[in-house]
């Protein structure tokens, strides 16, 4: 695996590898890698000539500076995992490399309603920050295929919207890979390593609440299931930002199963200080 820290060097490498048959897969991450990330690397390796992974904790997508400061950094372990998975390039830039002109920008990404609901409602400006860094990374890597994890489903939809807005939808194919879970159902996440022993025992309650909805779809409609599942989490001590049943394509809320051919339930809840998100396909 080659480690590259400079954007120009990576751009030159990509240019040198390009020919008619070369395919480049790209997995953008913020590090603190786990098996979920590695599954994206493995998916890319099956379909591409080369796989590029970036590790960059993007400051512009954190609306809470404390959350940014506490985000786990495990770069030595990340490198070992990527090497073992057969990743070809690790792009490990500095903040100055990614934002040479600072964080201010004139470009406003037109994302529509998707950036103001669910995560967007509780994290103002978050998805504009995501788009800033993803736009920059796509300019550098010029991938054919982009691999994202379903655990961050709303972010997947936002990035797909960004690619469409930039006119890159015919050049870049987005593949959303399934969420990987621990044995007890907890969605794999970099934030899980911040959980205390007691918090970790409680964390699978989120998945249990999602499963309750899936297992009771035939008997109850979305509003009642949302109410019951939210109460399940609150009774366990979670602070629930949202628990929503929505259409998979645009995450618009649904009140009747007949309103959507492909439904999903999404949740964000605090386990003390740690904010966990998850989602589960229902259809």
Structure description:
With 283 residues, the chain is an alpha/beta fold. It has two domains: 2-177, Rossmann fold; 190-281, Pantoate--beta-alanine Ligase, Chain: A,domain 2, CATH 3.30.1300.10. The chain is built from eleven helices and nine strands. The protein has helices at 7-17, 35-47, 65-70, 75-85, 95-98, 119-122, 126-141, 153-165, 197-202, 205-215, 222-235; strands spanning 2-4, 24-29, 50-55, 89-91, 145-149, 173-177, 239-247, 263-271, 274-281. The strands form two sheets. Strands 1-4-3-2-5-6 form a six-stranded parallel beta sheet, with helices on both faces. Strands 7-8-9 form a three-stranded antiparallel beta sheet, covered by helices on one side. Helix 2 links the parallel strand 2 (24-29) and strand 3 (50-55). Helix 7 (126-141) packs across helix 8 (153-165). The radius of gyration is 19 Å and the shape is globular. The termini are far apart. The model has no long low-confidence stretch (mean pLDDT 96).
CATH class of the largest domain: Alpha Beta
Secondary structure tally, helices: 11
The named CATH superfamily of the largest domain: HUPs
How much of the sequence is in beta strands?
15-25%
**Number of β-strand runs:** 9
* SSE class: alpha/beta
Q: What average pLDDT do the residues reach? A: 96
The helix-strand sequence is EHEHEHHEHHHEHEHHHEEE
Quote the distance from N terminus to C terminus. Answer: 40 Å
Task: Tell me the number of structural domains.
Answer: 2
Major sheet, described briefly? 6 strands, parallel
Architecture of the largest domain, according to CATH?
Answer: 3-Layer(aba) Sandwich
What CATH calls the topology of the largest domain is Rossmann fold
Overall helicity:
25-40%
Low-confidence stretches: none
Shape estimate: globular
């Amino acid at each position: 695996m080659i480690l590259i820290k400079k954007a120009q060097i990576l751009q030159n490498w990509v240019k040198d590898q390009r020919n008619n048959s070369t395919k480049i897969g790209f997995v953008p991450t913020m590090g603190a890698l786990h098996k979920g990330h590695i599954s994206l690397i493995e998916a890319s390796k099956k379909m591409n000539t080369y796989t590029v992974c970036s590790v960059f904790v993007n400051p512009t997508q954190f609306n809470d500076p404390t959350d940014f400061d506490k985000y786990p950094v495990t770069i030595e372990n990340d490198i070992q995992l990527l090497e073992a998975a057969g990743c070809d390039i690790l792009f490990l830039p500095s903040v100055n490399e990614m934002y040479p002109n600072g964080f201010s920008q004139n470009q406003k990404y037109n994302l529509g309603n998707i950036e103001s609901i669910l995560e967007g409602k509780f994290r103002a400006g978050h998805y504009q920050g995501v788009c800033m860094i993803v736009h920059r990374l796509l300019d550098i890597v010029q991938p054919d295929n982009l691999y994202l994890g379903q655990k961050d489903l709303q972010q997947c939809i936002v990035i797909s919207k960004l690619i469409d807005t930039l006119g890159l939808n015919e050049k870049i194919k987005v593949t959303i890979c399934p969420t990987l879970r621990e044995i007890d159902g907890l969605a794999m996440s970099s934030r899980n390593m911040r959980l205390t022993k007691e918090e970790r025992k409680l964390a699978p309650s989120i998945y249990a609440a999602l499963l309750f909805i899936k297992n009771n779809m035939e008997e109850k409609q979305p509003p009642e299931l949302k109410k019951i599942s939210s109460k399940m989490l609150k009774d366990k001590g979670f602070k629930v930002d949202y628990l929503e049943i929505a259409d998979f394509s645009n995450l618009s809320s649904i009140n009747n199963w007949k309103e959507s051919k492909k439904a999903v339930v999404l949740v964000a809840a605090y386990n003390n200080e740690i904010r966990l998100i998850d989602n589960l396909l229902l259809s």
